[in-house]
Structure formats: C-alpha cells, structure tokens
Amino acid sequence: MTSSETDIAQSTGLSRRSLLRAGGVGALVVGGVAAGLGTGIAPAAQAASGTTSLPFFGPNQAGVTTPAQQHLTLAVIDLQVGNAFELRTLLKQWTLAANQMSKGQPVGALSTPDSQAPADSGEVVDENAARLTLTFGLGPSMFDSRFGFTSKRPLPLSDLPVFSKDQLDPQRTGGDVFIQACADSAQVADHAVRNLIRIAGIRANVRWIQRGFLDVGGAPGSTGGTPRNLLGFKDGTSNLNTNDSARMANNVWASMSESPAWMAGGSYAVIRRVRTLVEPWDNASLKEQEDVHGRRKYSGAPFGGTAERDRVETALLPIHSHVRVANPRNGAASENERILRRGFNYSDGLAPITGPILNDEGQPVTGLLDMGLMFIAFQRDPRAQFVPIQTRLDANDALNEYLVHTGSGVFAILPGVLDTSDYLGSTLLDGPRATVAPTPTTTPAVARRPVPKKKRAPRPRKRLPRRRRTS
C-alpha cells in the first residue's frame, strides 16, 4: 500500500460515534427547471464498446462532457476544516480515492486487522467501474475567510438571484462542495459518494444528497434515442454537441477573460431540484401538454415539423411555450446563452405534508408524488447564461404551472487532475500550473555586440609626373 493509501485507510477508520458526528452516511435518501428540463447530454453506446472504466486524469474533469450514464448520486457538503492545509489534505485524499474508484478498484486495502474498520465499504467489490465519473465543484461559500483565498473567488461564481416561482428548501440550497457521481450502476454511484463522505469523516457535514436515473441508450429496456423526462417528453434534443470543441470553448469551459487563471480547464455548474406536479399534468389534455412544452409529445418534433431533429420555427410555437421562452433563437445572443444540460429524473416517494390539505370536494389529501428533475447545467458564466434564461422562464413560461423549484446551487467546477502528482484544486491552493512557452516558428535574431570597423591605412598618393615647362 502506498503512503497516500495508508493516509486514507487511517482517515476512514472512524468510530461509529465519529461517523455519526460527520453527518452520517445514513443521510442518503431514496430517489432523486430551468432552461429546458433537459435530461442530459447524448447517451453512450457503452454496450457496443464494452467500456466500463473512464479515465480520471485530464485537463478537464470527467462528468461534464462525458456521455450520459444511467444513474446519479449528487452530494452537497459543508466542510468543517479550518485552514488551507487541512483543505489540501482532504482534496488529495479525495483525488486518490476518486482515481481508484474510477478504475473499479477499492479505496484501500481490503485486508485489515480484525479490530480495524475496512478502508472500503465493500458493496461493489464484485462489480466493474460501470463508467463511473466523479466531478467536484466549490460553492461561493468556500471563498470566505477560512482558507485565505477570498480574493481568488471567480466573478462568475455569484449567488443566484431569487426567482419569483422558487420554493427553495434552505437545506437543499447553497453549500461548500458539489460532488456529482454518475455511473451505469446505482450501487457504484452510491458507493463512490459514500466512501468520499467516509474519508472526510468529521471534516465534513452532508448538506443534502439526491439520487437520479436516466433511461439512456443501451440501458436494459431502452429503445435508444433521446431520453424522456417524467412529463413524458423527449429531453435534450437541442442540447449542445460536446464534440464541437469551439462550442465547448465558447459556452462551457471557463473563459480566462472572465475567470482567474486558476480556473483554466474548469467550468461552472448550476443545479436545481425541480419537482414536477404530475397529478395535474397527467390530467391535462394532450393538446395542452404540447402547447405548454412546444413540441409533439411522442415524436419530439417541433411545431410545423414531423421529426425530432427538424428545425424549430419560433413563430410557429405558442408564445409562452417552454421551448420558445427558453431559447428564442434570435441569433448570436441566443447561441451565446446556450448551456450544456446534464439532468436526471428523480422519484422520492410522497411529498412531505405539513398540515391538513383538502381537495376540491373537501376530502383530505394523503400525499402527492415527489418526483421530477435534478437539473444540472455546465456553462462558461451563469450570469450571462443561466440567469437570463431562467429570468425569462420565471416570468413567461407556461410550464411554471406544473413545476416547483425546491433546491438550488451554483459551483465552480475545478480544473481536471493532470496525473498522479497533481490533485483536485491544486491550481487554487498552489497557484496556476506553469505553461510552456510555444516553440518559435523562426529562429529569433541574436543580438550581437557591434564590431568596430577597422581603420584603413591611408593609401599612398600616386605621384604624378612633373610637367615640363615650355618657354
């Protein structure tokens, strides 16, 4: 076992009492809009490729442009560490564990003394990596006085405004650290988050956790194609093409003209827990559902078209339809606002009831379904992308009648980890990585000391023959 692995094994050997003080792994809950109710980027064809593990190292973190997996476990954590040294130690331990789990390996040695807790919780030792990706981000609250980098807070990492339709639960709003675990196995995604929390121990309190699911192409029972949200509509049809590097640079990855140098290779994530009021929605007519959404329910075609990928003609859409309000398609302004959505459906049983509720007939309502969308969107600058989109939706979207936003947050997605000598957040804590100067295409002129000119010896004067004097 390496010294780093030993550190993690020691840090995870918590007593039951310490684990409970840490916020408890038992905080896991069962189950699970802005701009588009998108259920994520293009699904993967992992069944054909046979790929089970994805690389952890790279200039950008995995889980942003990675093809969508089937399951999500999202955690928002508040840290209890008090200085930059403790934060650096935790991030290094998380880096090592995340790399191990991404390869389908346990976070530490499986064999331990009988008196010591295992380093890994062990519930996926018989499974492969299931295309696990782990993505980490920091919230605005991380840039207070605790760690000494208040001045390094990126301007795009601004708290979101309160929208008029919000009914946010304070426990599901804000937070220090965002962890997104996506995998083709719910147990693998849960295991990853559970072990990261376990490693943190008393250094972190779990603020909230949300599980989600997505019927992506290649999943059992799926016919492939664009996944559907719980309203029954295809979602993600007009999402950004992650293979378009120019588009990713313009709309997704942090711009160095707007962000500090340490954010190079990072992005910004907005998360929203959007509950869908499925009871009234399921009783609305098909025409009303399509008018509210702005597409045909079963084919996914836009109004005036016959196929899902047909061009959207804004003038043919109902003026308050979700598709039209989210993206007016008015040229460069709309194109620059577009965000990379990576959402997952959720279903959390019954919504909490805080008092006696009566229906129209005066009969008590025993409970409504708590299901909807865990909306996640990556972008270059939420102030210029998510906020104007959601401001329009908040004011004019017909879908508002069927949605309740109950959770929210904005996070700076850290740059990727380059190799085993690097760690999450290194550019923030230790300074931006050194850049290699580009190789010049021509050899630069070398400055030389001027060589003094030699003085020429005077030429001997040619003597002319004397002219004879004539009388």
Describe this structure in words.
This protein has 471 residues and is of the alpha+beta class. It has one domain (3-423). The protein is 21% helix and 15% strand. It contains twelve helices and nine strands. It has helices spanning 3-11, 16-21, 46-49, 84-102, 186-200, 245-251, 278-282, 286-293, 322-326, 332-337, 386-396, 426-430, and strands at residues 71-79, 133-138, 177-183, 204-213, 267-276, 340-341, 344-350, 369-379, 403-413. Strands 1, 2, 3, 4, 5, 6, 7, 8 and 9 form a nine-stranded antiparallel sheet that branches. The model is unreliable at 1-36 and 436-451 (pLDDT under 50).
User: What is the N-to-C succession of helices and strands?
Assistant: HHHEHEEHEHEHHHHEEEHEH
- What is the multimeric organization of the chains shown? single chain
For the record, give the distance between the C-alpha atoms at the N and C termini, rounded to a whole number: 123 Å
Overall spatial form: globular
The proportion of strand residues reads 15-25%
Task: Give a count of the beta strands, DSSP E runs of length 2 or more.
Answer: 9
- Rg is 30 Å
For the largest beta-sheet, the strand count, sense and barrel status come to: 9 strands, antiparallel
On the 0 to 100 scale, the average pLDDT is: 85
* Approximate helicity band: 10-25%
Structural class: alpha+beta
Uncertain stretches of 5 or more adjacent residues: 1-36, 436-451
